[in-house]
Amino acid sequence: MSKSFLPLAALSASVFVVGTAEYLIAGMLPQVGSDLGISEGTAGQSVTAYALGVVIGGPAMTMLTSRLPRKRLAVGLMLLFAAGSVVCALAPTFGMLVTGRVVSSLSHAAFLAVAMVMTTGVVPPEKTGTAIATVASGFAVATLLGVPLGSLLGQSAGWRAPFWALTVLALAAAVLLAAVLPEQPAPATRLRDEVRVVTRRPVLLAIAATAVGFSGVTTVFTYLTPLLARIAHFSPAAVSGLLLAYGAGSVLGNLVAGKLTDKSLSATVRGVFGSLTGVLALVPFAVVWQPTAVLAVLGLGLLATATIAPLQGLILRYAGAAPTLAVAVNAGAFNLGAAAGSALGGVLVAAGALRWTGLAGALLSAAGLALTYLVLPRARSAARGAVATSG
What we know:
Shape: globular
CATH topology of the largest domain: Growth Hormone, Chain: A
CATH class of the largest domain: Mainly Alpha
Transmembrane segments: 45-65, 77-99, 105-123, 130-149, 161-182, 203-225, 237-257, 269-287, 293-315, 327-350, 356-376
Domain Major facilitator superfamily (MFS) profile: 7-380
Oligomer: single chain
Order of helices and strands: HHHHHHHHHHHHHHHHH
InterPro entries: MFS, MFS_dom, MFS_Efflux_Transporters, MFS_trans_sf
Organism: Streptomyces hiroshimensis
CATH architecture of the largest domain: Up-down Bundle
Protein name: MFS transporter
């Protein structure tokens, strides 16, 4: 067993806990609404509040904690997440529920940033892509298992029970991180160095590629269930099976992309975006026949999270010695892209164009691909410039 195994496993497990929280409540909106005396639509705003906390609060939290030793910060962020989960579990009103969700969300992007930076410190440079994918797989597994299992617990034991479960898991993760993470001092870089890196053109372009490219996935995925039911005419049981296959494919695709990123970052990021654009463009035509619909879902699953490792690798390449804030902002960009894609898909569905969400997603994915071509040719100069900012 390598020295990096336990730290990477602990970070991945912690990411799983944080990743489960984001969409957990989406499967329990009727129970939340009934208990707190609000509509399901109002209850759904707690998902929006969490997303805004990640996009806005995550980078702010990263800046406020930039001078703390990395191990201590990772443990502290998990304890903050646990505290937010307790507030949610005890919330007597919708306002208190939103408060708890926001508190938990503040640790989301900040923890992911710390996890990614610590990951690069426990593996050799040639294994960075694989290590990033290993840690990020916690999110894919959260989508595959954490969210549905949490929703099932909420259905049987009440909507507060999953938040108590998250609290226990977060506390266990904090103990595990404290036990196995190596000591890493606070970065030698100053906060202004971190800010300067984020505002440089190559880093901004890479973050934009994340937001725009990932929005193409969620334009389709958010409405995949009605697409498979209404257009492909799958039964509810078949749709559930396909969603499970999609999640399993996401886990596999993420890990494979990590290994490919170690071999060639530029070829991987372009290959994933190019393939994703093609699959999304074919979705409207594939869903009219069930066998091709199955292939489209499997292809989309394999490629959906395969963007994570190369895109985070892109950020780390250009951020040089001051990567923490850039990674946190990029984590927010994933959430911003998810929200934008879902909103665009909703507009199309409302307009009666459910079948054609794939074409809109393909255009967004192609735009993300185009942005990577603006970034990658400047890799060497960008990397030198980012390192220079820490001097």
